[in-house]
Specification:
Pfam families: RelB. By secondary structure, this protein is mainly α. It is built from four helices and no strands.
């Protein structure tokens, strides 16, 4: 049996640039912005709170993020190299 879901119109003030970027991403999943907001709100109810960690970057992380945007301190690496490095770090932590 199909449940009828009551819907209502809501007005939200959104950052227009983020909204447009999100809409492009969501379209790849066949979702509208309205669908995504409904999914988010359903998860808020299920989790009884925000369904992900909200973090404020520390000074070091902000510095690295700024440098990355400016193209500083970057090095090329293949996926294989990254996997090997990650595996090596996991092995080191186990011992």
């Amino acid at each position: 049996m199909n449940e009828v879901v009551k819907k209502e119109r809501s007005n939200l003030y959104l950052n227009s640039e983020i909204k447009e970027k999100a809409k492009r991403i969501l379209s790849h999943y066949g979702l509208s912005l309205s669908d995504a907001v409904n999914i988010f709100l359903a998860q808020v109810v299920l989790e009884n709170g925000i369904p992900f960690k909200v973090r404020i970057p520390n000074k070091e992380t902000l510095k690295v993020m700024e440098e990355t945007v400016k193209g500083k301190n970057l090095e090329e690496a293949s996926l294989e190299e990254l996997v090997l490095e990650a595996e090596s770090r996991v092995k080191t932590k186990k011992t």
